[in-house]
Structures are given as structure tokens and as C-alpha cells.
Specification:
Elements: E1 20-25, E2 28-33, H1 34-39, E3 46-49, E4 54-57, E5 63-64, H2 78-85, H3 97-101, H4 120-124, E6 179-180, E7 184-187, E8 192-195, H5 202-205, H6 211-217, H7 222-229, H8 255-266, H9 272-278, H10 284-289, H11 295-302, E9 314-315, E10 322-327, E11 332-338, E12 344-355, E13 361-369, E14 375-382, E15 386-387, E16 393-403, E17 409-415, E18 420-424, H12 430-435, H13 440-444, E19 454-457, E20 472-473, H14 477-480, E21 487-492
Antiparallel strand pairs: 1-2, 3-4, 4-5, 6-7, 7-8, 9-21, 10-18, 11-17, 11-19, 12-16, 12-18, 12-21, 13-14, 13-15, 13-17, 19-20
Length: about 500
């Protein structure tokens, strides 16, 4: 085997003491074992210093032993030893002061005589041993009752019990004195007692007497009582057939009157217009129109179709053309007026995004107007969020609502960004002609003035009540296109 350095040799396993080792002894080469080498090692002496808890080794490093804790074993400290020496034999775990002082935790009884510091009354229980006793009168020792020597006690109604009145003193000698005693007036030295006027109410007359019954009691005569009862003049008349009598129900004198009353409720009264209509020569077809239940049925009878709009179709209600509008102003409602040519129910609103705005959304709505064609009230319908981030048409269903033909309504849009929408042309003067304005040009329309657009500052996502709001009237053409042309889908026709 070639020569190798010690560092190149394979590490030995655990030594057993029998391994052979090469040594040089007194200049001569010898062999020995690892066990013989181990036997020549000197012994180790250990010593311990209690004050520092140090375990010293004569051949190695010293070790400081730890003090025992609640979690780790170790040496007992001097303080712990002192505490343990202070425990009596058979002692148990102590409780906190709060537990020991709580009276509820005490068991058994203890004679008061074994407790020091108590007052005398605590051990005798005698009233005479009390200090600070109240001073009581002689009545404190008496009983209550009606016998001799008893104290008189009022009953539950505050009245005296039955006692011998002759023994009471300081009562008026002449009985009750004259004067007003409430509902009773006493006079003539107590000889006359008079009930005051109005003192006898219906309650004092008894539960069966009503206010109406009492009203009869104070009437001066029969005529006054008839007035209280609400009776008319017939109450004093007799039933008969002669003058001044009341007719009976089967009286022949009222037969004609009954016939007239029946005719009044059964037949149409004489009317010149009805007479003229009755004289007209009518055809069967004409009379059939009078039996139709609604306008749609009448149109069907006449053969007139539902022209202009059809159920399911989208309607662009704004006259004057459309353009790619200007960028919307965020959190601003833009309003355009419009008119439907016929009454229709709408349940879907749509618009077109022409230039996108990343991350933007729009919402569409419709408002009504007041008698002055001013936008008013809450939104008749409004969509959920529609994306303004894609150049395309957008729409959403809304709660169905009815648009009445010929009335002014307002299409509305709001956005949280600045997308550009397909908008009514700024030169469209049709709605300006209808709405009018303070200047002649407002009605005639010009290339620079349309007065169509209205704006209201409003946080995106909410549609306010515009009844008391005055919108801004926008006249410049560039601003007149800051809105959207909103199409509406017809869901029903009358």
C-alpha cells in the first residue's frame, strides 16, 4: 500500500481498548493498545464551593450548578430552605387572604365569649346593655285597641273605630256648623241641609242614569223635552186621513208619490241631448264602437294598427341626430329632454360608449317633469353600473315604467369617470323649440346656442330627488354634448 498522510486515513470507529498503536519507547519502536494508553491517564479530583455553587475539576473546566426553578431541577436556594423550615409538620397549602377573610368560607360556630373586643350586648343580648338607646314616652308600652288604657288606631280608610263619643273632648257643642260642606250647604244652625245646584251628577244618580236621561230631568215642560229628544212636529200629530194628520204607510194619498219615486230611480230623466241622440239613425258598426272596453279594442275595431312603436323595439326618442359626444364630467348628472310619440311602457335603457375611460362605469336613468317642463321628482327608473371601459353599446333592464305621449321627460346619465358617449347633436334645436328660453334665440335655435342640456352635481351611484333642485342650464355646444343619447326598449303598449 503506498504511503499516506494521517489526514488521508479513514476515521476510526468507537475505540474498544484492543486497537494496536505504534509508539517509540526509550528510542525503540514498540506496539501497545489504546486501552493501555488510557490506563496511564491521571484521575480527576472534584471539589464543590457552596457559596458560589461551583463544582471544580482538577483536569477540566469548572461548572456552576443552577438554582432550582418551578420548571427545572437544580440546587435549593438558602431562601427556599428558610421558607421550608418555617412550615409546621403536617401543614397544608395556604389560601389567598381574600379567601381566608371571606366569611362565607368559614365553617362551624364560635361562642361570642371566646372573641375579644366585642361590646357587652354581643354576649348578653340584653336591651339594657345597648348604648345610645332612644328615649321613649309612656305610650311606647301601651297596646292599641278600644279597651281602657289602649291607644286608638285609625282603620284602613283613616277613620276612627267605634268608640264611646261621650268621652271625646273639644267637639263643637252645637253639632255641625252652618256653611258650604262641598255638595251640601248647611244653614239654620244645622237644621237645614240643601244639595247644591249641579251637585247631583249622573254617576251619583246611579249607573243606569245616562247624560241624555239626566237632560230630560231639568227640562221645564214637554216641549223642552221633545227638543232634548230631537223630535219634530209630527211627534204631536195623530195618524189619519184628514188635514193635519200624519199619513200611514198604506195611505192612498201617497200611491202617486211612490210611483214617481220608482220612476226617478228606474228611468233616465228627460234630457234634450239624449232626445237628440235617440233621434239619430245609427248603423250596427257605429253602435259596436260604443261597446269597446279600451282604446286598443277600439283601434282593432277601426282597423288602426299600433303605429310608430312596437313591443320589443328599441326607440331613440330624441330628434335632431347624434354625434360622438364630449367626455362626461365625473359625478355630474347630464340631462336631455325628450318626448314619446305615443304612450308606451319601457323596461330597458341603453347607450353607446364611443371613447373608453379605463375603469369607468356609467348609470342611465329617466326623470319626469313638472307643469313648467322642469325636471322634477325621483328617477322613474335607473340602471345598475354599466362599463365605460369598452367601446360598445351597453344596456340594462329596469323596473317597467310608463311614458305618456306628448309629455316632457328627461334622459339622464352619470359616471365615475370620463368616457365619451354617443350624444344628441348640439345643433339639434327641436327640444329647444319646445322648452323655450328667456331669449328669442332660445326658441329659434342658433349654431352656438341650444339650451338643451341640464347638469346637476351628484355623487356617482345615487339618483337624488330633483323637485327642489335647480339644474345648471348649459348653452355652449361643446358642453351640450356632455351627456348620452339613451335608447329605450318598449315592453308594452296600451
Amino acid at each position: 500500500m503506498p504511503d499516506q498522510k494521517l489526514s488521508q486515513l479513514t476515521a476510526a470507529a468507537a475505540l474498544t481498548g484492543a486497537e494496536m498503536v505504534y509508539v517509540v519507547q526509550s528510542g525503540n519502536q514498540r506496539r501497545t493498545t489504546t486501552g493501555e494508553i488510557s490506563a496511564t491517564a491521571p484521575g480527576t479530583n472534584l471539589s464543590f464551593t457552596a457559596a458560589t455553587r461551583t463544582l471544580a475539576s482538577s483536569t477540566g473546566a469548572d461548572v456552576v450548578l443552577p438554582v432550582a426553578t418551578t420548571t427545572d431541577a437544580g440546587l435549593e436556594s438558602a431562601a427556599d430552605k428558610t421558607k421550608l423550615d418555617g412550615l409546621a409538620t403536617g401543614a397544608t397549602v395556604n389560601s389567598p387572604d381574600a379567601t381566608l377573610l371571606a366569611r362565607a368560607n368559614h365553617t362551624g360556630t364560635q361562642a361570642a365569649g371566646t372573641i375579644t373586643g366585642l361590646s357587652t350586648v354581643a354576649t348578653t343580648g340584653a336591651y339594657g346593655d345597648l348604648s345610645g338607646k332612644p328615649t321613649l314616652g309612656t305610650a311606647a308600652a301601651l297596646n292599641h285597641g278600644t279597651a281602657a288604657g289602649d291607644l286608638v288606631r285609625l282603620d284602613g280608610s283613616g277613620r276612627l273605630p267605634a268608640v264611646d263619643g261621650s268621652q271625646l273632648t273639644n267637639l263643637p257643642g252645637g253639632g255641625i256648623s252652618d256653611g258650604d260642606k262641598g255638595d251640601i250647604t248647611v244653614s239654620a244652625s244645622g237644621a237645614t241641609w240643601t244639595i247644591d245646584n249641579g251637585a247631583v251628577s249622573t254617576a251619583k244618580l246611579g249607573g243606569d242614569i245616562t247624560a241624555a236621561g239626566k237632560a230630560l230631568l231639568d227640562d221645564a215642560d214637554a216641549a223642552a223635552q221633545r227638543t232634548s229628544l230631537g223630535l219634530g212636529g209630527a211627534a204631536v200629530l195623530s195618524v189619519g186621513t184628514s188635514a193635519g194628520t200624519v199619513a200611514a204607510g198604506d195611505d192612498s194619498r201617497i200611491t202617486g208619490a211612490l210611483a214617481a219615486a220608482t220612476a226617478a230611480t228606474t228611468y233616465q230623466g228627460l234630457d234634450s241631448d239624449l232626445t237628440a241622440i235617440a233621434g239619430l239613425a245609427t248603423a250596427t258598426f257605429g253602435r259596436s264602437l260604443l261597446t269597446q272596453t279600451d282604446a286598443a279594442a277600439a283601434r282593432a275595431t277601426l282597423g288602426v294598427s299600433n303605429s310608430v312603436y312596437a313591443v320589443g323595439n328599441w326607440v331613440n326618442p330624441f330628434d335632431g341626430g347624434a354625434v360622438a359626444g364630449s367626455a362626461l364630467t365625473a359625478s355630474t348628472i347630464a340631462l336631455y329632454p325628450f318626448i314619446f310619440r305615443r304612450t308606451a311602457t319601457v323596461d330597458n335603457l341603453g347607450a353607446r360608449v364611443t371613447t373608453v375611460a379605463a375603469g369607468s362605469n356609467v348609470q342611465l336613468a329617466v326623470y319626469g317633469s313638472d307643469s313648467n317642463n322642469k325636471v322634477t321628482g325621483t328617477a322613474l327608473a335607473a340602471t345598475s353600473n354599466l362599463s365605460g371601459a369598452t367601446a360598445t353599446t351597453v344596456n340594462a333592464s329596469v323596473t317597467a315604467f310608463t311614458i305618456v305621449a306628448g309629455q316632457i321627460y328627461w334622459m339622464a346619465i352619470n359616471s365615475n369617470g370620463t368616457p365619451v358617449m354617443l350624444a344628441p347633436s348640439a345643433l339639434a334645436t327641436h327640444m329647444s323649440n319646445i322648452l323655450g328660453g328667456p331669449a328669442l334665440a332660445d326658441a329659434l335655435g342658433t349654431a352656438t346656442n341650444s339650451l338643451v342640456l341640464r347638469t346637476v352635481a351628484q355623487t356617482f351611484g345615487t339618483w337624488p330627488d330633483l323637485t327642489s333642485v335647480t339644474p345648471t342650464v348649459v348653452s355652449a355646444n361643446a358642453n351640450a354634448q356632455k351627456g348620452a343619447l339613451i335608447a329605450m326598449q318598449v315592453s308594452a303598449l296600451p
